[in-house]
Design brief:
two-stranded antiparallel ribbon; eight-stranded mixed sheet; about 45% helix; 12 helices
Length: about 300
């Protein structure tokens, strides 16, 4: 039996996600078909590629070795197709973009929508995750681009400043606060904080290091924080664009700090080792143009 390109693509999807069901959705097929193709691959190579157990699946040593090589081969094939399209004068293809939650959930979707109207034949596939995973996806060639509030500090990835976003004090509409608000006044209020390790938490902790704030909750993700503030649990420091839906609903208000100006710097990250396809280049230029124009709560990085 000859191994097919589709079988290798299915294997890569299963190995990347360690899930037959997630892989089936990723390659637009059924779970039984995925399971059948993996079984055929294992019969062909005469070794198990996955360890199947009650908690889930894991790669065997043989599976890991195959994945490392197949990932490179399939990435090269995808890149070759994009290069050929360039010679045909086409603006088509797929761009894989990874972004952290603040950008990926609240800023980038609108930019991608505008980009798609201008380039209807280019598909942008976006994954939202934490900073470490986002940078790892670019480093492993699982994404062409990343948008993150931290520049890469390891590997050979390159970054450029894209935009700056203000952080503001978010508080329930039932509360009355002075405008603007001092850091000292902010520190006396019950705090709803992000989880340990988030950049927003680090900035908030540094801002209040000379005070003794009362943290009433630490929640994973800005959406959970915003909901908790809207429910009256306390106040928080959040990126301004993430509060729009709650501001529009009238459940929260925001204040700038009088004696501090906390911000997030966002970076556009890519791998210099990877060929920049016409589709990826078009998205990069669109992002740069958008950032130069700025937007509500955003400033160009220059």
């Amino acid at each position: 039996m000859a191994v097919t390109l589709q079988q290798l693509e299915i294997f890569r999807a299963v190995a990347r996600n360690l899930s037959f069901s997630v892989a089936a959705k990723e390659v637009y097929t059924s779970q039984p078909h995925v399971s059948n193709q993996i079984r055929k691959l294992e019969e062909h190579y005469r070794v198990p590629l996955f360890i199947r157990s009650r908690p889930g699946i894991a790669l065997t040593e043989a599976g890991l070795a195959l994945y490392e090589r197949i990932n490179i081969i399939l990435s090269d094939i995808e890149e070759a197709e994009q290069v050929i399209q360039q010679f045909r004068g086409l603006q088509r293809g797929t761009v894989r973009l990874a972004a952290t939650a603040s950008a990926g959930n609240h800023v980038i979707p609108g930019i991608v929508a505008d980009f798609q109207r201008r380039h209807p034949d280019i598909v942008v596939m976006m994954q939202v995750s934490n900073t470490e995973d986002v940078l790892g996806r670019v480093d492993r060639d699982e994404a062409e681009l990343a948008i993150t509030p931290r520049p890469p500090e390891w590997g050979e990835l390159e970054s450029e400043s894209l935009y700056i976003e203000d952080l503001v004090v978010l508080f329930p509409s039932s509360m009355t606060l002075p405008d603007p608000l001092t850091v000292e006044q902010f520190a006396t209020l019950p705090q709803v904080a992000r989880e340990e390790g988030s950049l927003t938490w680090e900035i908030m902790r540094e801002l209040l290091e000379d005070h003794d704030p009362r943290v009433v909750a630490q929640l994973g993700g800005t959406t959970a924080v915003n909901e908790a503030v809207a429910a009256g649990l306390g106040v928080s420091l959040v990126p301004e664009t993430t509060a729009k839906a709650w501001l529009d609903a009238g459940s929260v208000q925001v204040r700038a700090l009088q004696d501090a100006h906390p911000v997030h710097h966002f970076y556009l990250v890519h791998s210099p080792q990877r060929y920049v396809t016409p589709a990826t280049r078009a998205l990069i230029e669109h992002l740069r143009s958008w950032a130069a124009e700025g937007g509500p709560g955003l400033k160009p990085s220059s």
